[in-house]
Amino acid sequence: MSILVVRSIFSGCLLLLSVFALAKEPSASNQKPSTSDQPPKLCQAPCTSGGQWDLSVGFGLGVSTNPLKGGSDIPLLVRPRLSYSGERFFLDNLEAGVILWESPSQQINFLLQPSSEQLYFRRWRVESSLFDDANKNLIADGRPSNNPSSIENNPPSIVGPSTRPSISSLHHRHTSALGGLEYIYTGDSLEFNVQLVQEASGYHSGRELRLAISRDFLEYWRITFGANFQSEDYINYYFGIDEQEATQELPQYAASSGGWSELVRLEYLKPISEHISLRAGAATKVFSSEMSSSPLMDKSRAYSVFIGGVYYF
């Protein structure tokens, strides 16, 4: 899908979001709280000791562009979400955590979650979350692709001038576990989030700092501005090219430092009945120069759009 097409979808999605905002508000008796589609972390006083499970499925049409050379865009069609909120433990799809300290407006958590960069290298995905890395909201994580997982089993060949570079000749980029601390501040219509995580599964020694600020407005809208700093080791594991992987079209590359990426995301979530909400979103992510300078990258930014609904069980 060309970038012009995605930009057109992006603009059209924003227009449809505006149309949704004018839809008739449901009565209070059957309105689903808008916070039910957010991670169930911050406990609203009074807190209960019992746990609560929530299951929802998002459905609709959407796409996330793939910035890799030869990479396929990622369709967003079905987005299942399973969450659990207990007195101290919480689960949100593939993210788990423990509440270390909390007050009515602040919270400190220990997190364990999967990385998201490997999604660009995979063929099959299950949609779960627009640019997950900036904070919990509309790309995917999924099962391993059918591509060989090692260079020994699939040595790269020199790419001819008429052939686009293929990511299938690369070492397998594993899903890594990221563990660390999270701080959340929540006001009346504002949320500030900081995460500092370290790779914990042994694939690399990278670190990531994530900053995000979100503001709710016009009742059903939320806008988020985010920035992620990824260390040199983190960037090189996913976007570096070592000597064994290098080809004529994909020369050897290693970032010399870490770098910042930025994100802007606009979301709309409007309950229309006890079990169904309308949902739409659009986001753009600008990759750091250390990432976009990699020969693997075809674009310096990615777009993501989604429009559809959410069913709550």
Write a structural description.
The chain has 3 helices and 15 strands. With 313 residues, the protein is mostly beta strands. Helices cover 10% and strands 40% of the residues. Strand 9 (177-186) and strand 10 (190-199) form a beta hairpin.
Short description:
This protein is mainly beta and 313 residues long.
Key descriptive features of the protein:
15 strands, two-stranded antiparallel ribbon, 313 residues, twelve-stranded antiparallel β-barrel, 10% helix, single chain, disordered N terminus, globular, mainly beta
Main beta-sheet annotation: 12 strands, antiparallel, barrel
Helix content: under 10%
**What is the tally of helical segments?**
3
Strands side by side in the biggest sheet? 1-3-4-5-6-9-10-11-12-13-14-15
Structural Rg: 20 Å
What is the string of SSEs from the N terminus onward? HEEEEEEEEEEEEHEEHE
Q: Could you report the average pLDDT, rounded to the nearest whole number?
A: 78
Give the distance, in angstroms, between the N- and C-terminal Cα atoms.
34 Å
Total beta strand runs: 15
Strand content of the residues, in percent?
35-45%
Low-confidence stretches: 1-49, 124-129, 133-163
Broad shape: globular
**Class from helix and strand fractions:** mainly beta
Question: What is the fold's blueprint, element by element?
Answer:
Blueprint: H1 3-21, E1 52-64, E2 74-75, E3 78-85, E4 89-92, E5 95-102, E6 106-114, E7 126-127, E8 140-141, E9 177-186, E10 190-199, E11 207-217, E12 221-230, H2 232-239, E13 259-271, E14 276-286, H3 289-292, E15 301-312
Antiparallel strand pairs: 1-2, 1-3, 1-15, 3-4, 4-5, 5-6, 6-9, 7-8, 9-10, 10-11, 11-12, 12-13, 13-14, 14-15
